[in-house]
Specification:
Bound molecules: ligand G3I
EC number: 3.2.1.8
Oligomer: single chain
CATH class: Alpha Beta
CATH superfamily: Glycosidases
Radius of gyration: 22 Å
Number of strands: 8
Largest sheet: 8 strands, parallel
InterPro entries: GH (IPR017853), GH10 (IPR044846), GH10_dom (IPR001000)
Subcellular location: Secreted
Distance between the termini: 32 Å
Structural class: alpha/beta
Strand content: 5-15%
Number of domains: 1
Order of helices and strands: HHEHEHHEHHEHEEHEHEH
Catalytic activity: Endohydrolysis of (1->4)-beta-D-xylosidic linkages in xylans
Shape: globular
Pathway: Glycan degradation; xylan degradation
Length: about 350
Amino acid sequence: MSLRKTLAVLATLIATGTAIPTPSQTETSSSFPHLNELAQAKGKLWFGSSIDTTSDSVKDDTYISIFNQSAIFGQTTPGNTMKWDYTEPQNGVFDFTLGDETIALAKQTGKKVRCHHLVWTKETLLGAMKTHITKEITHYGSNCYSRDVVNEAINYDGSYTDNITYAFQYAREAVQALNADIKLFYNDYQISQPGTKVTSVLNNIITNVQSAGDYIDGIGMESHHSDTFYPTVKELNTVMSEYAKLGLGIHITELDVACESTPCSTSGQTGQAQAFYNVIHACMETAKCTGMTFWDFNDKYNWIQPSTNDGAGDATVLWENCTAKPALTAVEEVLRGESCSVC
Ligand code: G3I
């Protein structure tokens, strides 16, 4: 960065009251709190972070030296490399190369893997269906006087099995054929507070899948929050107890907290710290909640970039130069069972 640009950035940080990271605060693998060890000491399976090996993060020495430490992260989720567009780039053509790389990286660094994900209902299934429908209608055009759109959706006994249930059934069958023990999760966002979406997930997805067979093991609460809008511990406890009542395991799968404007102000950083604290606090208090995962741990590689999100960003526990935010202190404190000194 040029001197002029550096000074401009510093001026913005000062004007917005943002704490200026100093080199001495830079987190390395030796100073970064041992989040995984702390979580495991309290009976959890892991504390982890996603990694997107298609990004430059893997070439970032400081970042990788933190990621590689199993005392810090005992689990990972591929941010992108196991998605349909990577594993089946063309219909029927499979390519597991990048996903295999993530598995290898996890194995080398002693991490469990949450594989993510098989079907992205909204984008993948609906996208594929939309393309198919549009292409075929366009191709045959007015040669068709009428056309059947959906065929035989209801079973002979009047019951209805939706595509999500089929996805779980096929997944369970494939797992059983391997004689493996792979936990099958439904993963979604905005299911951390009681409301319409939680009710719909419970009534339209979980209950449907459960009544069709023993196909589902748990629910993934993505947990993408912001510095001004995040769940209270009470709200989290309420929804987690609903999930637990249905026998579901719970994972916090994609925890990040975006600051609505960037650079994140001092008060933004306080809200962010509180949001991280709340989510982890609720998981630590809930026996069925067994693991927590950051959706990356450095602002540079997180999906919420100010340029594409109306100025929102800075959503992780480390600034781009790997210096720690109050949120990292909050995470360490909650894992230690302490109150939050930075919230
Ligand atoms: O790799 C290409 C690169 O070659 C190309 O130049 C560039 C130009 O746009 O795109 C790159 O691919 C991007 C990819 O991330 C890797 O960075 C895609 O455009 C972009 O759409 C993709 O975004 C990912 C998004 O899911 C969509 O798959 C984010 O990184 C990823 O963090 C995000 O993760 C999702 C979870 O899977 C599900 N829950 C929500 C979460 C956030 O949206």
